[in-house]
Amino acid sequence: MIRVVLPYHLRNLARVSGEVSLELPTPATLAAVLRALEARFPALRGTVIDPASNQRRALLRFFVCGEDWSHLGLDIPLPDMVLGGAEPLLIVGAISGG
Distance between CA 22 and CA 36 in Å, rounded? Predict the structure, then answer.
């Protein structure tokens, strides 16, 4: 069971109030989690990964076990702590400004 915590605006689009739980075959990757999220919540399609470039949207970050995975490849297997549900996968809206 993989636990995913979405930022406020994506929770609103998906119409969920808390974290999302997903069952995925192992070895699960960040890409597999994102595909599963989009399949379960069609309103999220294209909001996390740009469909044209297949890259992460610039103002979103991924945190796995307290580490920023935003610039790592999407096909790296997730650690056992995330796969077992002990640690959530965090999708965080970045803040920018001047």
Answer: 7
